[in-house]
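Morning!

This is the sequence you dropped in the shared folder:
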Amino acid sequence: MLALIIGVIVQNVLRFYFPFYIEKRLKKLRYTPRVSPKTGKPMKLLSEEEEDVYLDEGMQAEEDIFSVDYDVWVDEETGYTKIEKYSGHLHALQCSECNYQTLKVVKEEIIKSPTITEDGELMKYFKCSYCGHKARKTFHIAKLKEPTPETSTSDSTSASA
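The structure's back. Tokens below.
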């Protein structure tokens, strides 16, 4: 019984505390001042408004749709800049035309519904929010599972009751 209690405690610590701990450490590392290679002094992290001057339009588009977040560090003495790229909290694919992560799904359409014997097909339509490039891609949908005898008998008994 004691081993079970210890196991549950360890499982909960790993499930809840450890990811929080790792995220806290990563955030601390992300915002630790960078050292300028030219002067050896700490660099300044720019705010979201200030960093737009150093980012091109595509990078700003990535930030606008929250697929990527950029941090810009500047050495105020020499003007040396360092741009770091981090994953954002929304998902977007990389556009084949402009190479920015701004390609998002705008529509999904089932071309062929799956059956018990055959796979189905799904068509996804994408549009780049930066350059306007449109693309589409077909995905396979897995076959439907056959109902098991237990489910079909329980369904018929509940229907007759």
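Headline: The mean pLDDT is 89.

More detail when I'm at my desk.
O.
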